[in-house]
User: Fold this.
Amino acid sequence: MSSLIDALLMPSCCACGQVAPLVVVPNVGVRVCEACALELSPTVIQVSLRECQRRYAFFEYDGSVMSLLSRAKDEAFGSHYYAVQSLFMAAAIPLIRKEKAAEVIVTQVPSSLRRSIVGWYLPSAIARHLAKKLNAKYAPLLRRKKQVGRQSGLGAIERRTNVHGCFAPRRFLLRNVTKDSLVVVVDDVSTTGASLGEAVRCLRQIGYTNVMAISLAISPLRSRGC
Assistant:
């Protein structure tokens, strides 16, 4: 009977959903099952873009990370979001502080129309919290000026073509920031980097030359189409 009660009261892993004893991921603070904990230790992955040499991610978009992000995208400020938030902060903050920038501005890749209507956009929530933790400025510097076709199923070149020209600056914000600041562009998942690259290109066109692009996860090499 006691073993049955223990099983019923045992919490479930926020990554895979399995009922199991939980452990804390070192240096992150997320409590997950032992199997997921092995997958949730962040590693800096640098995959340069034509528009931005400093493009980073911390996980491959697979397994536990895929599961967490999929849930967090549709769950405003729930347990999965806070797990994603903790993972992102633990990896991104030391990386950004190494730049030793006098001023940091955090922004995000603009949301799709559907996300704007829903009112919950994961990269925006992450970017706001990152700015708070860094004691930096948060500014949604870009807006989406046109909708694009679905990116899924497209290769790297087709993705770039698809998103070209889809972002524009929010000019009313540009008076409040300095152009020599380090601008950190946040996204949740990057595949070929087309959206991040277009965001960086747009920022450079309006004078921001010191730009870093960061996503929590990047698609495995076999899935990037490049």
